[in-house]
Write a structure and sequence with these properties.
about 325 residues, MetI-like fold
Length: about 325
């Protein structure tokens, strides 16, 4: 019987071969997982390219043309932007939009945070679920339906709101036809419809606050407004930043409420930037000018968002 003796150098070679095979197997598994992950991402990537990136690039290119669909596009360079910066109605629409943003976002943040703090303190879980559902329900409604319904409620002559105000001696208010009141009407409508989403954001932030910090503050005697100002607000600062950024981006694109409730009136008192873009592009078939307005609005949104993140370094605490 022939015996076989393992050479001293054969053991390390075999171990190296085993390690190489194991590493190659792991790399193959990682490669397969990566391919599978990218396969699942393909529909999302295609959707982003077709419905977001593509239209953005087309809008950018179209802003340098004059086009009304019926005639071939005509290159006019920066003429649309020159017209935009000399159009007083555009500046009025930007002013209205910024006023609406300031009023709406301020009410949204204060009201949503207050309600989140109140609901979080409820002892009854069933009652907490009820209020969460009740506050979030308007978010699920159509913006057009909400605008039509509240437009009737705010009607000066036969609206329910003026009817009950008259019962307590308040004269009728021209909610939708007074240039000094109409922005407040639109802002209140928007707050009622969107408050539930911001409320859920703040409720999640309040629920994740460290209980040991709050209990220590209570032991030290911090209560009421002092506790909210010194403990709760700093801990909630990342949530406040997220809610504020998302709400401002959303409200800079005001369209449903002013378009349906007032058509931008009286005059141009409630006309917003998106309404100007829509009216020029789809009403007047001036797609080049409408694209130029859309680009300026996009630039404004980017600048405002960037300023928010820069300023957040002073008041947002992540630890």
């Amino acid at each position: 019987m022939t015996s076989y003796t393992v050479q001293p150098s054969e053991g390390p070679r075999r171990n190296a071969l085993v390690r190489w095979l194991a590493a190659d197997t792991m790399n193959g598994i990682k490669r397969q997982r990566a391919i599978l992950g990218y396969t699942f991402l393909i529909p999302t990537i295609v959707g982003l390219l077709l419905f977001i990136v593509g239209p953005m690039l087309f809008t950018f290119a179209l802003s340098f043309f004059k086009w009304n669909v019926f005639r071939p596009p005509e290159v006019i360079g920066f003429a649309n932007f020159e017209r935009l910066f000399s159009d007083p109605r555009v500046f009025v629409s930007f002013r209205n939009t910024f006023l609406l943003v300031i009023m709406t976002v301020t009410m949204l943040e204060v009201l949503a945070m207050s309600l989140a703090l109140a609901v979080h303190r409820l002892a009854s879980r069933a009652l907490g679920y009820f209020f969460r559902t009740a506050y979030f329900l308007p978010v699920l409604l159509s913006g057009a339906a909400v605008a039509v319904t509240l437009g009737y409620l705010f009607h000066q002559d036969f609206g329910v709101i003026n009817y009950y105000l008259g019962k307590v001696g308040v004269p009728k208010i021209a909610w939708l036809t007074d240039s000094n009141v109409v922005l407040w009407t639109i802002s209140l409508t928007t707050v009622w419809r969107n408050m539930g989403f911001t409320f859920i954001i703040y409720l999640g932030g309040v629920s994740s606050l460290p209980s040991e910090v709050l209990e220590a503050a209570q032991v030290d005697g911090a209560a009421g407004w002092r506790r909210i100002r010194s403990i709760v607000l700093p801990l909630l600062s990342p949530t406040i930043l997220f809610a504020t950024v998302t709400d401002i981006i959303k409200m800079l694109q005001f369209f449903d409420e002013p378009f349906i409730m007032t058509r931008g009136g009286p005059g141009d008192a409630s006309r917003t930037v998106v309404m100007m873009m829509y009216e020029n592009a789809f009403g007047n078939l001036d797609f080049g000018y409408g694209s130029a307005i859309a680009l300026i609005l996009f630039a404004v949104i980017m600048i405002v968002t960037g300023v928010q993140f820069v300023l957040s370094r002073r008041w947002v605490f992540y630890n």
